[in-house]
Amino acid sequence: MNTLTGKTALVTGASRGIGRATALALAQAGAQIIVHYGRGASEAKAVVAEITAAGSRARCLQADLAESDGPHRLARHVRAIVGERLDILVANAGIAKAATLEETGVEDFDELFAVNVRAPYFLVQQLLPIMCKGSSVTLLSSLAAHVVIGELSAYSATKGAVDTLVRHLAADLGPRGIRVNAVAPGVVNTAMSSFIRTDEGRQMTLNLQAIKRLAEPDDIAAAITFLASDQARWTTGATLHVDGGSKLQAR
Ligand SMILES: NC(=O)c1ccc[n+]([C@@H]2O[C@H](COP(=O)([O-])OP(=O)(O)OC[C@H]3O[C@@H](n4cnc5c(N)ncnc54)[C@H](OP(=O)(O)O)[C@@H]3O)[C@@H](O)[C@H]2O)c1
């Protein structure tokens, strides 16, 4: 269904994983896409080629979101392309580092917060002038923000911050008609969670979930596409759990 025809979307970290699947899903729903990437230029170009081959419009833009002015530079380039209107922002780019408290260094901690929290925050700030009534923002939280899994305390704290931001930004931007939500995936089959490609990792993941199969990126993209659409017009300030019923007993 072309529910997003005429809309323009920016998806950060769309060179692979959940961001790539989201860019493809939003394009399939009719939106024009800006495919943001960090290091994966050839992967991002391949996503653009796939979208244009299917008859939709897409461009790619590079920005390192670990740099303090990365979101500002990206927003400037986006504004130069789309002009005065951005309908959909999916701030998906993120990094994870599995490490114990003792192993976590200050640089790693700062980079996690820079990419996962600071970048979405300033991207929303810098793109706000071109977001209008009906625009939507979706951030990426995680199951790890809500339950303890693995050695992920610093990463999980970034996702807890995302959940908090969603409520505050939704309250701030609601009067302008802009919705802000997050999706919180469980373990998804991407490079970030490549441990699920081992027998042990697969079994551990299946043991977490009510639904007994591994999550693929398009399972998450479907929920993000819903949140970006008018079907979610009354949903804001929410973190949507998209995790196959992971750790239901523990929540
Ligand atoms: N996979 C999971 O199990 C899982 C679970 C819960 C939440 N999440 C969240 O979902 C989001 C996407 O995760 P994923 O699994 O799709 O990860 P992924 O496959 O590792 O992809 C990460 C994406 O983020 C981009 N990125 C990372 N650091 C960047 C930087 N400094 N500057 C610009 N772009 C950067 C990468 O771009 P380049 O490759 O082009 O540099 C890539 O496109 C993240 O926010 C993650 O925390 C994932």
Automatic annotation (TrEMBL):
Gene3D superfamilies membership: NAD(P)-binding Rossmann-like Domain (3.40.50.720)
Superkingdom of origin: Bacteria
MF terms in GO: oxidoreductase activity
Keywords associated with the record: Oxidoreductase
SUPFAM superfamilies in alphabetical order: NAD(P)-binding Rossmann-fold domains
Keyword Membrane: no
Protein biosynthesis among keywords: no
PANTHER family, per the entry: OXIDOREDUCTASE, SHORT-CHAIN DEHYDROGENASE/REDUCTASE FAMILY (AFU_ORTHOLOGUE AFUA_5G02870), SHORT-CHAIN DEHYDROGENASE_REDUCTASE FAMILY PROTEIN
Name the UniProt record assigns to this protein: NAD(P)-dependent dehydrogenase (Short-subunit alcohol dehydrogenase family)
Organism the protein comes from: Paraburkholderia bannensis
Record lineage: Bacteria, Pseudomonadati, Pseudomonadota, Betaproteobacteria, Burkholderiales
